[in-house]
Design a protein that fits this description.
By secondary structure, the protein is α/β, with parallel strands linked by helices. The protein folds into two domains: 128 residues, Rossmann fold (3-Layer(aba) Sandwich), CATH 3.40.50.10860; 137 residues, NAD(P)-binding Rossmann-like Domain (Rossmann fold), CATH 3.40.50. The chain is 38% helix and 23% strand. Strand 5 and strand 6 form a beta hairpin. Helix 1 packs across helix 9 and helix 5 packs across helix 9. It is globular and about 65 Å long. The N and C termini lie far apart (45 Å).
C-alpha cells in the first residue's frame, strides 16, 4: 500500500499590494531544506478587511501568517497576545495561530541584526550605530540592536519629535546612556554602522545625512532592496563605506518566522544566494 502524504500545514503573507512578495519562494525553500510539509501562499487583503482575511484563513486551517505593508499596525490588534519584541516594536509582522489564540511577533529587527552580525560578519557590540528613520521598520530594529550592546545608538529622523519619543521609550527599557535622538542637521561624529530605515529610498531620495557620518570601514545598510543599489547605498559607497541592501534582512526575518512556527531555524545562506543570483 502506498502511504498517503500528510497534508501540508498552511501559511501565507498578507499585504496590499502583495504581488511583488518573495516570501512564498523563501518559505518554499525553507520547507524543502528542512523536509517540513508547508504550503505558503500570498494573499491580497482588502485595505478595510485585514482582520476578516486573517480569520477566514484561520477558518480554512491556516497555522500562521506574515504581515506586510500596510497591515503591521493592524496586526497588533488582531493578535491576542504579543511577544516582547512585538510590544517594543509596536508592530507585528508574524502571526502564529495556536491553541492559546493568535500570538503576534515581530521578526524584522532580529532579521536585520542576524543579517549584519552573521551574514555581513559585522559585530554590533561596542560599535557606534546610526539608525536613520523612526517609522515602523526603525522601531522594530531598536530592541534587537540594543540587545547586542552597541557603544552608541543614535536615531536620526526628519521629524525629530518622533525620533525623540522612540529614544525615550528605549531609554526607559535599559538603553539609557546608549540611545539618543536628533535631527539630520544635528548629526555629529562618525559611525561604524549606518542603517537606512527611512522610506526615502522608495522615492529614490537620499535622507539628508552628512557624508562625514561614515567612519573608516563603516557598513551602510539600506533596508530596501532592488535590482540597483539605492541612492543611499551609492552615496555611502562614494564615501568609503561597505554597502548592503535589505535582501538579507528579508530572508532572515522569514527564517525567524519559520523557526517560530516550525521549531527549526533553516539555513539562510543558500536561500539568500539563490535570490541574489536571480537578480
Ligand atoms: P514608515 O512609513 O513607517 O516610516 C518611514 C520613515 O521614513 C519615517 O521615519 C519618515 O520620516 C522617513 N522618511 C520618509 N521619506 C523620507 C525622506 N524623503 N527623507 C528622510 N526621511 C524620510 O516606513 P517603514 O518603517 O515601514 O519602512 C521603511 C523602509 O524599510 C522601507 O524602504 C521598507 O521597504 C523597508 N523595510 C524593509 C524590510 C526588509 O525585510 N528588508 C522590512 C520592513 C521595512 P518622518 O517621520 O519625518 O515622516
Amino acid at each position: 500500500m502506498t502511504a498517503i502524504p500528510a497534508p501540508a500545514d498552511r501559511y501565507c503573507v498578507f499585504g496590499n499590494p502583495i504581488a511583488h512578495s518573495k516570501s512564498p519562494e523563501i518559505h518554499a525553500a525553507f520547507a524543502a531544506q528542512t523536509g517540513h510539509a508547508v504550503a505558503y501562499e500570498k494573499r491580497l487583503a482588502p485595505l478595510d478587511g485585514f482582520a476578516a482575511a486573517v480569520h477566514a484563513f484561520i477558518a480554512e486551517g491556516g497555522r500562521g501568517a506574515n504581515v506586510t505593508v500596510p497591515f503591521k499596525l493592524e496586526a497588533v490588534k488582531v493578535a491576542q497576545a504579543l511577544t516582547v519584541r512585538a510590544q517594543a516594536a509596536g508592530a507585528v509582522n508574524t502571526l502564529h495561530f495556536t491553541d492559546d489564540g493568535i500570538i503576534g511577533d515581530n521578526t524584522d529587527g532580529a532579521g536585520l541584526v542576524a543579517d549584519i552580525v552573521n551574514n555581513a560578519g559585522v559585530p554590533v557590540a561596542g560599535r557606534r550605530v546610526l539608525l536613520l528613520g523612526a517609522g515602523g521598520a526603525a522601531r522594530g530594529a531598536v530592541l534587537p540592536l540594543l540587545e547586542h550592546r552597541p557603544a552608541q545608538l543614535v536615531i536620526a529622523n526628519r521629524t525629530v519629535a518622533t525620533a525623540q519619543a522612540l529614544a525615550g521609550q528605549f531609554a526607559a527599557l535599559g538603553g539609557a546612556g546608549v540611545v539618543s535622538a536628533c535631527g539630520y542637521a544635528d548629526l555629529a561624529g562618525e559611525f561604524d554602522l549606518v542603517i537606512n530605515a527611512t522610506a526615502a529610498s522608495l522615492g529614490a531620495e537620499l535622507p539628508p545625512v552628512p557624508a562625514t557620518v561614515f567612519a573608516p570601514g563603516a557598513l551602510a545598510l539600506d533596508m530596501m532592496y532592488g535590482k540597483e543599489p539605492t541612492v543611499f547605498l551609492q552615496f555611502a559607497a562614494r564615501h568609503g563605506a561597505t554597502v548592503r541592501d535589505g535582501l538579507g534582512m528579508l530572508v532572515e526575518q522569514a527564517a525567524e518566522a519559520f523557526a517560530l512556527w516550525r521549531g527549526i531555524h533553516p539555513d539562510t545562506a543558500p536561500v539568500l544566494q539563490s535570490l541574489r543570483e536571480q537578480r
